[in-house]
């Protein structure tokens, strides 16, 4: 009976396992924490207030400004050497850049990832910046408008007296750049790399999006609108370079054959007029030779003319087609920087206040003991 009674007493006892806390102990600890906070409330308030002030100052002096994002969605189709208007070569090459296809890398400058790198390359970007654009009814060089409204003078050129009031006097090619022009354009291009973007809209489509995010609304709009025009014109020029060279060669050949044919026909006409009443074998042979030459040159001329027309049609087929799916409209998407410093300051102040109270209570208890 004794063991049974002892087991029952343990079952009915109030002693809890070491890994459990009774509600009474929780209430007691909460009351103790409340007393500690009541004794040191001013420390907690002071720490929070200090963090709030510091965070507010950081937000007030922050260089982050409101940014405006512009985006144009377009589709590149058509073109291609032998595919004609129904060719899907360009679209397939572009799609492979976004993981749609598993084709091997292509050495073509306009295929796959190459096109994206090409669109953001410095020569293409510089052509866009050297355009004269109309903004607010005034003609201005886009690069000068960028310098004035992008914030580059307040950041990258803040401490540079050389570029404090720098601007390009006129549109220039790269061969015309001075040393200062090269330096300024290099800094502008490095900044623009972080502001311009070109990527696929979706992995399942061939649509692409060209975007720009700057601190000025009209600047963002002007950048994407003019850059898509530059890409289209430069792309079309490079993509049809061989065909245009062949077209020039054929055109020169047609002109040359036309001149020779006309001269031969005039010579034959004069020869026939001069020898109407003359019946000589040699004269008849010469006349026949001129007629054969005239007929041969005529067939060659019309053959070359047909080839020239076909080459013009081929040039039209090979030209890539840029189709704007979604244009850019005002007002643009605006992103206002949040007050992160103030919120972080309050949180840090609260943590530091708790730590300070803990240290003060600990040192006070050690001193009493």
From TrEMBL:
Q: Where are the transmembrane segments?
A: 41-58, 340-359
Q: Which InterPro entries match?
A: Bact_polysacc_biosynth/exp
List keywords of the entry alphabetically.
Membrane, Transmembrane, Transmembrane helix
PANTHER family in the record, alphabetically? CAPSULAR EXOPOLYSACCHARIDE FAMILY, TYROSINE-PROTEIN KINASE
> This protein is called what?
Chain length determinant protein
Which lineage is the organism of this entry classified under, starting from the top rank?
Bacteria, Pseudomonadati, Bacteroidota, Cytophagia, Cytophagales
């Amino acid at each position: 009976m004794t063991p049974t009674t002892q087991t029952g007493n343990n079952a009915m006892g109030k002693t809890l396992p070491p890994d459990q806390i009774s509600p009474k102990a929780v209430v007691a600890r909460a009351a103790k924490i409340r007393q500690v906070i009541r004794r040191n409330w001013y420390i907690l308030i002071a720490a929070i207030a200090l963090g709030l002030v510091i965070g507010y100052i950081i937000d007030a002096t922050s260089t982050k400004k409101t940014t405006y994002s512009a985006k144009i969605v377009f589709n590149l189709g058509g073109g291609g050497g032998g595919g004609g208007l129904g060719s899907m070569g360009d679209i397939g090459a572009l799609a492979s850049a976004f993981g749609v296809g598993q084709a091997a890398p292509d050495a073509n400058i306009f295929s796959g990832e190459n096109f994206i790198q090409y669109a953001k390359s410095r020569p293409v970007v510089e052509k866009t910046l050297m355009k004269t654009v109309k903004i607010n009814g005034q003609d201005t060089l886009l690069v000068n408008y960028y310098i004035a409204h992008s914030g580059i003078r307040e950041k990258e050129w803040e401490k540079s007296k050389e570029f404090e009031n720098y601007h390009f006097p006129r549109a220039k090619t790269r061969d015309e750049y001075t040393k200062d022009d090269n330096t300024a354009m290099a800094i502008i291009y490095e900044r623009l790399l972080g502001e311009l973007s070109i990527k696929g809209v979706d992995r399942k489509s061939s649509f692409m999006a060209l975007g720009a995010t700057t601190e000025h609304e009209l600047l963002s709009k002007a950048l994407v609108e003019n850059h898509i025009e530059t890409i289209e014109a430069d792309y079309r020029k490079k993509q049809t370079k061989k065909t245009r060279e062949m077209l020039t060669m054929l055109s020169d050949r047609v002109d040359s054959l036309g001149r020779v044919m006309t001269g031969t026909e005039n010579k034959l006409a004069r020869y026939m007029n001069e020898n109407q009443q003359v019946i000589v074998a040699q004269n008849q042979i010469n006349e026949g030779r001129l007629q054969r030459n005239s007929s041969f040159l005529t067939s060659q001329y019309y053959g070359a003319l047909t080839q020239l027309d076909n080459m013009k049609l081929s040039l039209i087929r090979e030209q890539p087609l840029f189709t704007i799916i979604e244009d850019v409209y005002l007002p643009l998407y605006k992103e206002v920087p949040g007050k992160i410093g103030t919120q972080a300051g309050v949180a840090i102040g609260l943590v530091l206040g708790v730590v300070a109270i803990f240290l003060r209570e600990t040192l006070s208890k050690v001193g009493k003991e």
